Amino acid sequence: MKPLILITNDDGVNSRGIRHLARIAREFGDVIVMAPDHNASGVSTSITCTRPLRAFLVDEEPGITYYACDGTPADCVKMGHEHFCPRRPDLVLSGINYGSNASVNVVYSGTIGAVIEACLDGYPAIGFSLLTHSPSASFDGCTEAIRHIIHQVLESPLPEYTALNVNIPYLPAEQIKGIRVCRQAKAAWKDSLEKRIDPVGRPYWWMTGKFVCENPGEDTDQYLLGEGYVTAVPISPDFTDVTSISTLKNLES
Amino acid sequence: MKPLILITNDDGVNSRGIRHLARIAREFGDVIVMAPDHNASGVSTSITCTRPLRAFLVDEEPGITYYACDGTPADCVKMGHEHFCPRRPDLVLSGINYGSNASVNVVYSGTIGAVIEACLDGYPAIGFSLLTHSPSASFDGCTEAIRHIIHQVLESPLPEYTALNVNIPYLPAEQIKGIRVCRQAKAAWKDSLEKRIDPVGRPYWWMTGKFVCENPGEDTDQYLLGEGYVTAVPISPDFTDVTSISTLKNLES
Question: Which helix (H) or strand (E) holds A60?
Answer without folding.
Answer: strand A55-61
